[in-house]
Amino acid sequence: MLRARPVVLFGPSGCGKSTLKNRLMKDFPEKFGFSVSHTTRSPRPGETDGKEYYFTSRDVMQQSIDRGEFIESAVYNQNLYGTSKKAVQDVLDAGKVCLLDIDMQGVISLKKTGMDCYYIFVKTPSLNELERRLRVRGTETEGSISRRLDTAKKELAYAEQPGNFHSVIINDDLEEAYTEFKNKIHLEVVSLW
User: Fold this and answer.
1) Contacts of 107 (CB under 8 A, 6+ apart)
2) Would you tell me which of 25, 47, 91, 153 could form a disulfide with 33, CB atoms 3.0–4.6 Å apart?
3) Where residue 142 falls among pLDDT bands split at 50, 70, 90?
4) Is it the case that residue 44 has pLDDT exceeding 80?
5) What is the pTM of this model?
6) What is the H or E stretch that residue 145 is in?
7) Beta 53-55 vs 32-34: how paired, if at all?
8) Mean pLDDT throughout 68-85?
9) pLDDT tens digits for 149-190?
10) How close are the terminal C-alpha atoms of the chain, in Å?
11) 145 vs 133: CA distance, rounded Å
12) Per DSSP, what are the bridge partners of residue 8?
């Protein structure tokens, strides 16, 4: 059986990547698996270790990175994030398409590995809408929102460069964005129907 290439989701915090990913996995549980990333940030309310992220200490994660156990890692909003080789391998061993949710530094690092991935950039229709979504979460401080918006501006500039992504999805209407997301994956990665 040929393995489908991994799907990499990237976009500013608050753009809806996790919502799209979670819905795809719910609708097609036999086809997709999520590569759970590691992070040194604290869990948000409702997050579970091993589900949304593997929550770990900076020292432990840095030692794993130094041993070459990660395919990509980056600092985002003053915390380490990364994708371990084992997390990706676990999904592949289950015979599923691997979904990765990583930041811009992670995308740049992953592209350097030569791994054949399908890259999708997800964004909101505007920075004002992104800020609104971050505020509605109720989990961010003013400083955190400011840093996330500054980072989002850099991510949007990177996404606008030709060749950095195979697809760009504007998440203005969730149903339309999800339909577009499914169709792109169906046409470019794995048959869904």
Assistant:
1) 8, 10, 72, 119, 158, 164
2) 91
3) very high
4) yes
5) 0.86
6) helix 142-159
7) unpaired
8) 90
9) 999 999 999 999 999 999 999 999 999 999 999 999 999 999
10) 18
11) 10
12) 100, 119
Name every residue whose Cβ is closer than 8 Å to that of residue 139 and which is 6 or more positions away in sequence. Answer: 44, 45
Residues belonging to the chain: 193
Helix (H, G, I), strand (E, B) or coil at 123: strand
Mean pLDDT of all residues in 78-91: 92
Q: Are 102 and 12 in contact (CB under 8 A)?
A: no
Nearest to 24 by CA among 9, 39, 46: 9
Q: Which structure tokens are listed for 48?
A: 């579970």
From residue 10, alpha-carbon distances to 62, 91, 193 in Å are 23, 19, 25
Token pair for 89? 């391998």
**Cα separation, 85 vs 72, whole angstroms:** 9
| Per-position DSSP letters for 70-116, written without gaps between them | EEEEEEETTEEEEEEHHHHHHHHHTT-EEEEE--HHHHHHHHHHT--
pLDDT one-digit tens code per residue, 106-131: 899 889 888 899 999 999 999 999 99
Tokens standing for residue 139: 């989990």
